[in-house]
Amino acid sequence: MVKPNSECYKFAAQVARGRWTLVFTSFLIMASAGATYLFPIYSKDIKINLGYSQSMLNTLSTWNVIRASAGILSGLVAELTPTWFLLVVGSTTNFLGHFIIWLAVTGRIHKPEVWLMCVCMFIGVNGQNFATTASIVTSVKNFPERRSMMLGLLKGYCGLSGTIFTQIYVAIYGDDSTSLILLAAWLPVLISLSVMYTIGEKKVKIRQLNEVKVFYHFLYLSAILATYLTAMTLIKQYVAFSRAANAGSAIALCVLLFLPAVVTFRQEVFLWKQMRAAPTTVIVESPQAVEQEQDSSVNQQKQRKIQLLLSKSKILLRDKNVFLCGHL
Predict the structure, then answer these.
(1) 43-94 confidence digits (pLDDT tens)
(2) N or C: which end of the chain has fewer CB within 10 A?
(3) What interhelical angle do 19-31 and 243-258 show, nearest 10?
(4) Shortest CA distance to 137 belongs to which of 202, 200, 184?
(5) C-alpha–C-alpha distance, residues 328 and 317, integer Å
């Protein structure tokens, strides 16, 4: 049994609560936030199994994409509640909305009215707003000086999420497109609840000078993942994959999806070694304090430049006056 005061326990706690672990788990959350992009795949099942007309289906599709306008709700909740609460709310609403839709499409409950399906659709896809808000807000707070790179990587994984869902569902359920609704119900919930306690505002224990280099590593891995997904999508248009081949491609996808964990673990080990080697030089600060200190240093540099320019201008004016007096 590992004791709370042992080195292994402290190292495991640092890895679980580290800033770089937050980056990796945020990638996973964003990669599971693509249920909105899946509607065109299972919309035909809704139309056929529930007997909806094209007009009814268009109405349902509108409520599928209107979630972007309701994102302010998750933002307001994020200002008042901790991050784990956002993930719990998002997981609950995501599961309830998609699970009820799956029950209706598969005929396990009585055929609902269109307005009820629209409500379930809105609740289900709006649950992803809570998860993505928790991921984006905490990532920006923890890396304020690298916010642009962080946002770009997160949005990239969100853009790939629809294709990731498609590859996984084909490997698990085959060509049963109704099961894609069930996958959209339980997979984001599983990921959000699994990484719930790793998402939050962290303390900066040691400043790293190689942060940009680490983010470039994440960028390279995400580019490899995107290339793989593009290649598999094009190949499957011309080659019929067996169930085993689909399972193999999904396993390869999961390996690529979890490769950033290697970079994360390496950085946490690096920080652990630095803290153990020189514990007296460890500086514990909040990310906001780091940003404020950087802003103050920039302002001080600007003030020194202004003072230098003023002194140079005074010297030039004095030399000019001496020159004029000499001629007179």
Answers:
(1) 889 999 988 888 888 888 888 877 666 778 888 888 888 999 999 999 999 9
(2) N
(3) 150
(4) 200
(5) 17
Instruction: Supply the DSSP string of 265-309, one letter for each residue.
Output: HHHHHHHHHHHHH-GGG---B-HHHHHHHHHHHHHHHHHHHHHHH
Q: Among all chains, which residue has been given the structure tokens 């990239």?
A: 156
pLDDT tens per residue across span 102-127: 999 998 988 888 999 999 998 988 88
Residue in the structure block whose two tokens are 């590859």? 167
Q: How many CB atoms neighbour CB 84 within 10 A?
A: 16
CA dist., res. 110 & res. 98, Å (int): 16
CB 195 within 8 A of CB 122: no
First-to-last C-alpha distance (Å) of the chain: 94
Residue 19 tokens read as: 């800033």
Interior angle at CA 222, CA 221 and CA 227, nearest 5: 100
Distance, C-alpha 250 to centroid of its chain: 21
pTM value is: 0.80
Q: Which residue has the tokens 């498609």?
A: 166
Task: Assign 189 a pLDDT band (cuts: 50, 70, 90).
Answer: very high
Residue in the block written with tokens 């030089």: 281
Q: Which residues pair with 204 in a beta bridge?
A: 285
- Contact yes or no for 81/136 (Cβ under 8 A): no
